[in-house]
């Protein structure tokens, strides 16, 4: 039974092994912030299952599965080299030579390379070897790669267009915090000042931390899924609008949650940083998975609706 499962594995098994290999090579990275580790890779499996549906569990013949194992073998070699050698330091030094700030170079540039390579391996596995049309997880990792690259090239508030949304988000966050009664909050530009008792904490929020990356990734995933489902232009635009609105609401809630946590630990910035490193993924992953599942189900229902109406009309003519 086990031998048969390995020689003729389900599609989702091979995709899951890719994520497990990344986890086994560096488990701690799955508990780090978006620009420090691989926590975002957790979404690959549910997104693949969401898009492939029952096809995720269809068995692959050995002739095709062996190429999948070859891709996984390459991934094992890559993750071992990435973890056990000075590859990260080489990328960091190269980024600094290209003008990236030394405070940013060990993070976003390094992770953009890591996610970029992983995106290539995932695309090779799903789109080429398995001949699957599951584009959402590939677009998701590709979006993370692009976002990390932009953050490396234009960190903090250097990209005014994206930074423009931050003050508006902080106004809503300040209103929520003040309404909670746990402390006070005052927003000015990209600074959120939190006060409780005699203590205070200033949170500087730049566009990456405001969740702009989640909006970009949601848009990419929505466009890819809409194209695959042959969604009309009007419905695609509506889905994009809902994706932006939903992502903004999730980010306001996330920053509000972070602010309330900071108020409870206002004299312990390190505790706040630990919570900040995982809070984003905890909220974003259920949101993106739930939204895309709703989109798929709605489109499926919409496409079946004309058939049911036509069937009813035929029945009425016969009667």
Radius of gyration: 22 Å
User: What is the H/E order?
Assistant: HHHHHHHHHEEEHHH
Sheet of most strands: 3 strands, antiparallel
Distance between the terminal alpha carbons, to the nearest Å? 54 Å
The fraction of residues assigned to DSSP E strands is: 5-15%
Summed up, the helix count is 12
Helix content: 55-70%
Low-confidence residue ranges: 308-319
Mean pLDDT: 83
Shape: globular
Content-based structural category: mainly alpha
Number of strands: 3
Can you tell me the number of structural domains?
A: 2
Can you list the strand order of the major beta sheet?
A: 1-2-3
In short:
Helices cover 70% and strands 5% of the residues.
Structural description of this entry:
This protein has 319 residues and is mainly alpha-helical. It has two domains: 1-155, no CATH class; 157-319, no CATH class. It has helices at 2-7, 11-25, 44-52, 62-84, 87-97, 108-129, 136-153, 160-163, 166-180, 212-228, 233-264, 269-318; strands at residues 184-188, 191-196, 199-204. A three-stranded antiparallel beta sheet has the order 1-2-3. β2 and β3 form a beta hairpin. α3 (44-52) packs parallel to α12, α4 packs antiparallel against α6 (108-129) and α7 (136-153) packs antiparallel against α10. The protein starts with a helix and ends with a helix.
């Amino acid at each position: 039974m086990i031998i048969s499962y390995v020689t003729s594995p389900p599609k989702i098994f091979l995709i899951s092994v890719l994520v497990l290999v990344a986890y086994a090579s560096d488990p701690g990275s799955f508990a780090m912030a978006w620009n420090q580790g691989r926590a975002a890779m957790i979404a690959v499996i549910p997104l693949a299952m969401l898009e492939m549906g029952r096809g995720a569990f269809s068995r692959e013949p050995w002739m095709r599965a062996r190429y999948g194992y070859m891709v996984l073998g390459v991934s094992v070699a890559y993750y071992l080299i990435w973890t056990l050698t000075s590859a990260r330091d080489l990328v960091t030094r190269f980024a600094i030579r290209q003008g990236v700030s030394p405070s940013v170079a060990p993070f976003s540039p390094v992770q953009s390379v890591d996610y970029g390579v992983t995106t290539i391996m995932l695309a090779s596995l799903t789109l080429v070897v398995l001949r699957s049309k599951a584009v959402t997880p590939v677009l998701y990792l590709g979006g993370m790669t692009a976002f990390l690259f932009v953050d490396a090239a234009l960190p903090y508030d250097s990209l005014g267009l994206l930074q423009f949304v931050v003050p508006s988000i902080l106004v809503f966050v300040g209103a929520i915090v003040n309404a909670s009664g746990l402390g006070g909050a005052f927003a000015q530009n990209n600074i959120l000042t939190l006060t409780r008792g005699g203590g205070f904490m200033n949170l500087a929020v730049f566009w990456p931390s405001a969740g702009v990356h989640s909006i970009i990734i949601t848009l990419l995933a929505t466009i890819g899924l809409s194209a695959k489902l042959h969604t009309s232009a009007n419905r695609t635009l509506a889905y994009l609008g809902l994706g932006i609105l939903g992502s903004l609401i999730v980010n306001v809630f996330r920053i509000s949650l972070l602010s309330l946590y900071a108020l409870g630990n206002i004299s312990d910035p390190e505790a706040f940083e630990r919570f900040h490193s995982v809070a984003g993924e905890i909220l974003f992953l259920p949101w993106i998975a739930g939204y895309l599942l709703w989109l798929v189900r709605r489109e499926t229902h919409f496409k079946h609706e004309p058939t049911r109406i036509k069937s009813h009309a035929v029945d009425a003519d016969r009667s």
